[in-house]
């Protein structure tokens, strides 16, 4: 059975990204460290209630280079537009897997429909690193609607796993990844116990979104994160209440991480180049 390496209790309400996303920094000071590679950063937004408005809330055009942003909507709607020409709205259960790679400019806003009606917004954004060999590839975008995400039903009516990326007992995830990654959206029914098997060479983390569960004698609640030891493959979870959680697993990239603001490269020189390229307009612009 895998052991818990670190338990990060629910972070306090954190900061706002633009005026649209009140987020908690789930990885806290583990962000951008090798211990969680290939993941870099994890912002958990909400749930937060917004009043109806005709104004545009969110975060305006900004660049990224050297990694991927993975946005998952749980409640509400998020609208995305980027310099590659993608324009899209995601709603509950949908995922955007955006590969910034050599550079992209995008904006992330509440959808017009959501803004007009108001309500609860709940989302997550993960930053996933790219290996050095892929950092300067052309940018790419995978819109993954909920209906395209394979659902694996767990034995004994214990719940289900939406396989966003990777492989769950032969069910292949919807997203294409650059390095081996499992991103599973897991639902466990109240009172059920489930067993998960993950590769021992992966870094593996569990994030509880709703409910309470027991893992290795620790009781976990909403917005808690556990980082598991690499050794071992089995994880057993007992749901005290109905639970929703995310499993984040991946093969560590094991390359230097240099980061500044929206750029994640391998060296400071590459970061300086990214800033220059952005300032010189080499990451494009959002049409219209
Ligand atoms: Mn962004």
Low-confidence stretches: none
Count of helices? 2
Distance between the termini: 53 Å
SS-derived structural category: mainly beta
Portion in helices: under 10%
Bound molecules: manganese (II) ion
Order of the strands making up the biggest sheet? 1-22-19-24-17-14-13
Mean pLDDT: 96
Coarse morphology: globular
Order of helices and strands: EEEEEEEEEEHEEEEEEEEEEEEEEEEH
Strand content: over 45%
Question: What can be said about the biggest beta sheet?
Answer: 7 strands, antiparallel
Give Rg in angstroms. Answer: 18 Å
Number of strands: 26
Describe this entry's structure for a reader:
By secondary structure, this protein is mainly beta. The protein contains two helices and 26 strands. The strands form six sheets. The chain has a seven-stranded antiparallel beta sheet, with no helix packed on it. Strands 2-3-4-11-6-9-12 form a seven-stranded antiparallel beta sheet. Strand 15 and strand 16 form a beta hairpin. It is globular. The model has no long low-confidence stretch (mean pLDDT 96).
How are the SSEs placed, and which strands pair?
Elements: E1 4-8, E2 15-17, E3 21-25, E4 39-50, E5 58-64, E6 67-75, E7 78-82, E8 87-90, E9 95-99, E10 104-110, H1 112-117, E11 119-129, E12 140-144, E13 151-153, E14 159-165, E15 167-168, E16 171-172, E17 181-188, E18 193-197, E19 203-210, E20 213-215, E21 218-220, E22 225-228, E23 234-239, E24 243-250, E25 258-260, E26 263-265, H2 268-279
Antiparallel strand pairs: 1-22, 2-3, 3-4, 4-11, 5-10, 6-9, 6-11, 7-8, 7-10, 9-12, 13-14, 14-17, 15-16, 17-24, 18-23, 19-22, 19-24, 20-21, 20-23, 25-26
The chain binds manganese (II) ion.
């Amino acid at each position: 059975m895998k052991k818990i390496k670190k338990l990060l209790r629910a972070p306090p309400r954190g900061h706002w990204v633009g005026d649209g996303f009140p987020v908690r920094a789930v990885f806290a000071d583990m962000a951008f460290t090798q211990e969680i590679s290939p993941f870099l950063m994890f912002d958990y937004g909400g749930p937060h209630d917004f009043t109806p408005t005709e104004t545009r809330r969110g975060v305006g055009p900004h660049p990224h280079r050297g990694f991927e942003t993975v946005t998952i909507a749980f409640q509400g709607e998020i609208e995305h537009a980027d310099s590659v020409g993608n324009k899209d709205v995601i709603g509950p259960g949908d995922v955007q897997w955006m590969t910034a790679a050599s550079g992209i400019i995008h904006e992330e806003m509440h959808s017009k429909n959501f803004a007009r009606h108001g309500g609860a917004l709940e989302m997550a954004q993960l930053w996933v690193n790219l290996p050095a060999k892929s950092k300067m590839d052309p940018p790419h975008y995978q819109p993954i609607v909920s209906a395209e995400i394979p659902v694996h039903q767990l034995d004994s009516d214990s719940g289900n796993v939406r396989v966003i990326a990777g492989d769950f007992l032969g069910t292949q995830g919807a997203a294409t990844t650059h390095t081996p990654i499992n991103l599973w959206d897991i639902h466990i029914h109240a009172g059920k116990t489930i067993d998960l098997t993950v590769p021992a060479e992966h870094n593996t983390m569990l994030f509880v979104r709703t409910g309470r569960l027991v893992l290795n004698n620790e009781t976990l609640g909403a917005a808690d994160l556990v980082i598991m030891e690499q050794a071992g493959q089995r994880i057993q979870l007992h749901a005290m209440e109905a639970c929703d959680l995310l499993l984040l697993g991946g093969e560590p990239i094991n390359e230097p991480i240099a980061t500044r603001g929206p750029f994640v490269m391998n060296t400071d020189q590459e970061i300086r180049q990214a800033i220059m390229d952005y300032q010189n307009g080499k990451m494009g612009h959002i049409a219209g």
